[in-house]
Amino acid sequence: MAGQEVSSRLVELLTAKDEQLASAWVEAVSRTLRGRMSLAELERELRELYTALVDGLRKGAFDWQGDAYAELRALLAELSRSRARQGFTPTETATSVLACKDILAPTTDTPSDDIHAYLHLGKLMDALALFTLEVYAKTREEIISAQSEQLMELSTPVVKLWEGVVAVPLVGTLDSARTQVVMEKLLQALVDVDADQAIIDITGVPAVDTEVAQHLLKTVVAARLMGAECIISGIRPQIAQTIVALGIQFGDIVTKASLADALKHALRRGGADVTTSGGQA
Amino acid sequence: MTERVPVLKIGDVLLVSIQVDLEDQIVLDLQEDLAARIVESGARGVVIDITAVEIVDSFVGRMLATTAAISRMLDAETVVVGMRPAVAITLVELGLSLGGVRTALSLEKGLDMLARPGDDRPAQR
């Protein structure tokens, strides 16, 4: 039997009892999803898929990458994406497509031609299921990269402490990508706030190695180029020991143990008088 | 003939506001003009405003340092003002820290800085 005949036979089989088959499909899938999706929604989705599948078979035989299947592919991609976002497992997503095979599964009294057609359909459905999974994985990756980007944004706030003083409390490990973001945000804040004192607080940085120190120094030099002075604060005892042991030179960059000291220093440098309530400086 | 960057005089300070793309010839012309104007006017300070400069290369970075050195020879203090964050990052990545050049965030602060000689700190409100 040629591919064309097989596909037309399949179309015949699928259209003859379409109502019944689509319902069986919906039923099979809803069982695997265990009520996490409304039946009406699932039914609408799968009916659309069913129609698109029959349509594809009629026009494009088994060439699932061809134009005839464009609509089906778009529907599958959409289904896959929404499943990935809602947190369904890959198995559950793939089963939505693969369940279609079962409803047409041949029985003992199926004529051999139909079994042949069924095998072809099985292959087609496998390819489509793989396609669905691919989209699923891609969506998951997109979600992950979007999240890491958000995390990056979240973890580097630049706050204005005083008139002309901004601070960046750094929390978490510093790598090149993050330092780049910190540097850009800090420099932009200097312009926006019109600040000429910047405090980089590294209390939340678990470890400082030569690379991190290099990044910090670069940021300080860049801020100086723009006409602002930087103070590095929040250096914990162990970090101070590491820095000295590594032989890192901070040169004439002011370093302070606490953010409070750094702010006091920045205000003094800015010409403000700083006194405690007791009247002592 | 390439365009030249104007050198403006405000009191005893010369103001150079760079509004064009910095080509090598423009930079060289500027250095010449500036040196001549400092001698001619006896200016005490030079403010180079690079707010409009979006792209720099190592040549421009070095030129800023040389210009500052030339001005200092002629007893005029140079302040570079309005450097954009992207430009600052580029210069740092190029390994140019412009040692010896004073910088300020804005033109106002730069002028303020020159008005208080000997004070190494950026101007404050």
Strand content of chain A: 5-15%
Structural class of chain A: alpha/beta
Using a beta-carbon cutoff below 8 angstroms, give the protein chain pair with the largest interface and the number of residues from each chain.
A-B, 24 and 25 residues
Q: Would you give the CATH topology of chain B?
A: Transcription Regulator spoIIAA
Reported CATH architecture of chain B:
2-Layer Sandwich
Strand content of chain B: 15-25%
CATH class call of the largest domain in chain A: Mainly Alpha
How many domains of chain A? The number is 2
CATH class of chain B: Alpha Beta
- Mean pLDDT metric of chain B: 85
Topology of chain A as a string of helices (H) and strands (E): HHHHHHEEHEHEHEH
Straight-line N-to-C gap of chain A: 97 Å
User: CATH superfamily membership of chain B, which one?
Assistant: STAS domain
Strand order of the largest sheet of chain B: 1-2-3-4-5
Oligomer: heterodimer
The side-by-side strand order for the widest beta sheet of chain A comes to: 1-2-3-4-5
Radius of gyration of chain A: 32 Å
Which helices and strands, and how do they pair?
The complex is a heterodimer of chains A (281) and B (125).
Chain A: H1 3-16, H2 18-33, H3 39-60, H4 70-86, H5 90-103, H6 112-154, E1 159-162, E2 165-171, H7 176-193, E3 197-204, H8 210-225, E4 229-233, H9 237-246, E5 254-255, H10 259-269
Parallel strand pairs in A: 2-3, 3-4, 4-5
Antiparallel strand pairs in A: 1-2
Chain B: E1 7-10, E2 13-17, H1 24-41, E3 45-49, H2 58-73, E4 77-81, H3 85-93, E5 102-104, H4 107-115
Parallel strand pairs in B: 2-3, 3-4, 4-5
Antiparallel strand pairs in B: 1-2
